[in-house]
Known about the structure:
single chain; alpha/beta; Rossmann fold; CBS-domain; four-stranded antiparallel β-sheet; 15 strands; about 30% helix; about 20% strand; disordered N terminus; transport; EC 7.6.2.9; P-loop_NTPase; AAA+_ATPase
Amino acid sequence: MQPGEGRAMITFDAVHKRxxxxxxxxxxxxxxxxxxxxxxxxxxxxxxxxxxxxxxNRMLDPTSGTIRVGGKDVxxxxxxxxxxxxxxxxxxxxxxxxxxxLDNVATVPLLLGWGRRKARARASELLETxxxxxxSGKRYPHQLSGGQQQRVGVARALAADPPVLLMDExxxxxxxxxxxxxxxxxMRLQSELNKTIVFVTHDIDEAVRLGDRIAVFRTxxxxxxxxxxxxxxxxxxxxxxxxxxxxxxxxxxLSLSTxxxxxxxxxxxxxxxxxxxxxxxxxxxxLLVLSPARTPLGWLDTDEHDGxxxxxxxxxxxxxxxxxxxxxxxxxxxxxxxxxxxxxxxxDSGALMGVISREEIHTHAGRTHTAAARPSGSAx
Length: 380
């Protein structure tokens, strides 16, 4: 397997890993990690997920069994060359503190014999790809924030265009807001690059958000279940998996479904420059005030308004419009927070399409749970 050669499936066939002290880290693991997908390994500390990851690039060798990347046994390949053909991102970014950011990213291409000019050009291109400026390349790691350092770590792992990317809790050391931003960035990159990614985390919410498949390990390195996020949440294999997923696994399932197919109805509206209706006008209580571009500005409660002035000048309650790509969980949250109990549905430009009732969201959520819980291949 050479850098840039394309994607690669990873397969584990009856793999064991025991350490000299007798500890079993991975026990009889057979698992396929599809090419071009994100396989997330989850489980409590000491369950073998990081050991599993590190056996792929031979940071550790299995005691027995076979691991193949792109159909080739990793034990039959030179370990150093194998590692250079696989991207690797760790929690603390692992950057060289004495080298500039640009030179950090250029590390693997230089090791592979690229010329300095070509390696630095590739590094500069990747910094832009992960959302950093060219100016960042001149700095040293300590001059960057934690989130920026993690972006550099991802850029460095991608520098030689490897088909496989290993990520060991890469976002665990940053605050929640930055973590969400980094997750968004990874999903954007994956939509463009289609790498085979193996991602280790202890955070089930992160696993559900990022993974195409999630593999749950228990202590002792035993794989309990590997499935797509929806199937895992709806049909955990046993009590251990259900407990690990948590009491809110039903809500997590809603985070996987979007508003795309949820029906909406015509909204009662008033334009911002029009007179604000009052409670004596006889119309609906709740009106959405719209800008000239038909973007929702807020809710007008006519029961609390005595009339007079324009709708824009009246006291408005906040509205958080949602798009078709937003999740059912976001819609459920917004329906509870919305003073009207309605969710404003907008198009990609932000213009109002209609409103969705709290009841319709609940009904659709119930259908989602029922469909997900139905065994594969069963009749509808």
